[in-house]
Design brief:
alpha+beta, 21 helices
Length: about 500
């Protein structure tokens, strides 16, 4: 009974208060406004249910509505702005007020409330799966998802501290602020404090604080949105640098590799997405984790969220033996549209190796034309490793061979050439790669690249906004929730 009354009280707080100015929303916020359409699409009361046990219903003053605070965070993600700026914009932007279910004349919260909400209310909440499940259920309800394929990939996000020192970040933020100021008033160049040219962090902090004070004194300049946003970013960086001294204390972030000669320090988000471009599952790990091992869990979460999966589309990282054995809930094999490693399909043959298979002799012949004198099978079946045929050549012939340089090592007691025996699993996958179904499904893989780009370039997912994997999961939850809602709106319109 107490829980129900607590829920009822929180729900009542969220209702728009009766106001003589409420009709302004119909005049100012158009029907096709993104925030109005999101409000019409989804009932946010599920946030109440999820966070109910985080609030006390009979002690202390009434809390801010968790739905409204969640919406503040969603606005911050949709428009990629800071806590301070999302609150400030909510003060005068009527579409923001409408979305937040505020009366037009109602006061906004203090920006610090959002920090407390994240740390005290959203902590230990599986927000990532909660929000993905909600959007997928809406997509299924509206019959948007009809395919039975998921496209998988991993995208990386840099740690908040990566890869710069506090000094470098401060310099970059102060530079952006100066550029914003000069675009408005070039005469301000003569009024700016002298830049710090040393490598001393304390001196750089002092310069940034002086720059902040200089701009704060100009009331007209600091009220310009472009300048104000850059000023707020610099303020946050100054506070963070003072608290942590260096911006690299992210113990959860790890170094991962984008290619053989390119690495990053941060996190990976492993994503599964339907062909309709609705993200159906996501996992956040540290940057060093491989892509392939996360596939079974992505499939399982997608299925739990109601998506039927009979095909997985991805790159070669997902073609490992364990993934090729995946099955759906009906114990049917899941088709893996991912190319095998060339070492498996073509063999690990070096350019200088000219050994060819002689089908009549059922063995290999060396570049000089000598047949192998025997062969041996190495390895056991069903051990997770491929078996190998090793072909041995007459060492006495090798010693006298005119082509021995680079082929025969003087003093070696044997000369052999090994060939991997492809398992039935790999043989089947090689044949599947040549099928029209494989080639057709492969054409859909580009979609997830575009989705990753949207997350990073539109919603700020290229870099973590806070320390720790839990905060990265929260950031991922809100970013994915935003792109899924936008996609649903696009498909339903």
């Amino acid at each position: 009974m107490l829980i129900n009354s607590g829920l009822s009280m929180l729900l009542q707080q969220q209702k728009i208060q009766l106001s003589a100015y409420s009709d302004l929303y119909d005049l100012i916020v158009p029907k096709d406004n993104l925030l109005r359409k999101i409000s019409d699409l989804i009932d946010f009361s599920f946030i109440h249910q999820e966070l109910l046990d985080k609030y006390c219903s009979n002690n202390g003053r009434n809390a801010q509505s968790p739905v409204r605070l969640f919406k503040y965070l969603l606005l911050k993600t949709i428009y990629c702005i800071s806590d301070v700026d999302v609150v400030e914009r909510s003060r005068y932007d009527m579409s923001f007020k409408y979305f937040l279910e505020m009366a037009p004349e109602e006061a906004v919260i203090n920006a610090s409330t959002l920090t407390k909400f994240r740390k005290l209310r959203l902590k230990d909440t599986d927000l990532l799966n909660l929000l993905i499940n909600k959007t997928v259920s809406i997509a299924l309800e509206k019959e948007i998802i009809t395919s039975k394929s998921i496209i998988v990939d991993a995208t990386h996000s840099l740690s908040r501290s990566n890869p710069f020192s506090a000094l470098e970040v401060l310099r970059e933020r102060s530079k952006l602020l100066r550029k914003a100021v000069y675009s408005v008033d070039e005469d301000m160049k003569n009024q700016m404090p002298q830049k710090n040219v040393s490598g001393d962090l304390d001196k750089e902090l002092a310069y940034c604080k002086e720059l902040e004070r200089c701009i704060e004194l100009d009331h007209t300049l600091r009220s310009i949105p472009a300048v104000k946003e850059k000023l707020n970013l610099l303020k946050e960086t100054i506070e963070d640098a003072q608290e942590n001294y260096i911006l690299s204390k992210d113990s959860d972030a790890k170094t991962g590799h984008k290619s053989a000669d390119s690495n990053f320090f941060g996190y990976k988000t492993h994503i599964a997405m339907t062909e309709e471009r609705i993200i159906s599952a996501a996992l956040v790990t540290s940057g060093e984790k491989g892509d392939g091992p996360e596939l079974p869990m992505l499939v399982e979460i997608s299925q739990e969220n109601g998506v039927q999966v009979d095909t997985v589309i991805g790159d070669g990282a997902y073609s490992g033996s364990q993934n090729l054995k995946l099955k759906d809930k009906n114990d049917q094999p899941i088709k893996i549209v991912a190319k095998l490693n060339p070492i498996i399909t073509q063999g690990n043959r070096k350019l200088e190796d000219k050994f060819e298979y002689n089908k009549d002799a059922n063995t290999y012949v060396c570049p000089a034309g000598h047949l192998a004198i025997r062969k041996a099978q190495q390895g056991k079946k069903n051990t997770g490793k491929n078996q190998v045929y090793t072909h041995y050549f007459d060492i006495e012939k090798c010693k006298l061979c005119p082509l021995r340089e680079g082929c025969y090592k003087p003093g070696a007691k044997s000369k052999s050439y090994s060939v991997t025996i492809k398992s039935d699993l790999h043989q089947d996958q090689i044949a599947f790669q040549e099928s029209e179904y494989f080639k057709e499904k492969s054409k859909h893989r580009y979609k997830i690249e575009a989705k990753n780009s949207e997350l990073k370039n539109v919603h700020g997912y290229n870099r973590a906004i806070a320390y720790g994997i839990q905060n990265m999961q929260m950031q991922g939850a809100l970013a994915i929730f935003a792109v899924n809602l936008k996609r649903i709106l696009k498909l339903t319109s």
